Amino acid sequence: MNFTKNSISSHRKTLNYLFYSIKQDELAKFKHLLKAAKQVVVLSGAGISAESGVPTFRGPDGLWRKLDPSMLANPASFRDDPGLVWEFYHYRRELVLRAKPNAGHIAVAEYEKRHAHDKLVTVITQNVDGLHTQAGTKNLIELHGNIFKTRCTKCNEVLENTDSPICPALAGTGSPKCDKLTSDIREKDLPHCKKPDCGGLLRPHVVWFGETIDFRLFEKFDVVISQCNVALVIGTSSIVYPAAAFPTILSASGSIVAEFNIEKQSPTSRKFDFYFQGPSAVTLPQALND
Ligand code: OAD
Ligand code: ZN
């Protein structure tokens, strides 16, 4: 047999897929419950986008120039050095612009589409990468906002923006390899509101540490969570609130909760009804095909 580099990598992929093939008896039980569900909630975190090449926050590539995201994604850092915070978001925007939804995002979107007439599927994501939308998910709550939206710090206008780069001064900046912890970019060269009577500095439309989630979403969560029959909790470390509390609240309000995570379940981790270990791009298509 003649192994080329590509064929070796494709064999390796197949082996990975076999390795992660989830336990069939558990899977059958889960699918049986899912089939009967009228309302399904999908709660996703950074892990669902890992196989699209977007680094998770608490994984090995989670640091940017030795800083963890909470040191950049907060209002005080933006006040002190908006250039540095914009460099970080510029880096992530460019990375995500090149990323494509993976089989996990697609399985979720196709499930919603197939069941448009017999189930209400709601996706609540902590991710700001827009990959659920790109995959075709319609009923989506972006809990932490979206990096392809800007918000004016003066007039609060929110606009979609996928420009690459978002402004000329950010071109070629934001490399995580460089170790500079201040930015040379002047504030006047960062993105600004185009309204003639405003001109305020723009910021990414994402929820930062120390900020609260739009209170109108909470009314929506109450309804969605209280009526949910089956919840899929995918690729989240469940550290950041309020999302971290959702699985427990869902379970307490009578929903079946199934976790999907690449990590082995630790003896101290939360125990819900199901735990499917493996990359979600492998486990979700198996769990959501009818
Ligand atoms: P984390 O980086 O904290 O956790 C990612 C989770 O995904 C971990 O539990 C991993 O084990 C799991 N994981 C990694 N690769 C996976 C794969 N291929 N398949 C399945 N699971 C995988 O990310 P989040 O929990 O999303 O907030 O982090 C929550 C929030 O913290 C983020 O939204 C962000 C961050 O700071 C803000 O920016 C406000
Ligand atoms: Zn403005």
Automatic annotation (TrEMBL):
Location relative to the cell: Mitochondrion
PROSITE patterns: SIRTUIN
Nucleus as UniProt keyword: no
EC number annotated for this UniProt entry: 2.3.1.-
Pfam families assigned: SIR2
Primary enzyme class: transferase
Keywords from the named record: Metal-binding, Mitochondrion, NAD, Transferase, Zinc
Catalytic site: 144 (proton acceptor)
Domain called Deacetylase sirtuin-type: residue spans: 20-290
Cofactor: record remark: Binds 1 zinc ion per subunit.
Gene3D superfamilies (alphabetical): SIR2/SIRT2 'Small Domain, TPP-binding domain
Record bears the keyword Zinc: yes
Binding site for substrate: 89, 92
Cofactor(s) listed: Zn(2+)
Sequence positions that bind NAD(+): 45-64, 126-129, 235-237, 280
Main location: mitochondrion
Family: Belongs to the sirtuin family. Class III subfamily.
Function: NAD-dependent lysine demalonylase, desuccinylase and deglutarylase that specifically removes malonyl, succinyl and glutaryl groups on target proteins. Has weak NAD-dependent protein deacetylase activity; however this activity may not be physiologically relevant in vivo.
Protein name stated in the entry: NAD-dependent protein deacylase
Species whose genome carries this gene: Spodoptera litura
Phylogenetic classification of the source organism: Eukaryota, Metazoa, Ecdysozoa, Arthropoda, Hexapoda
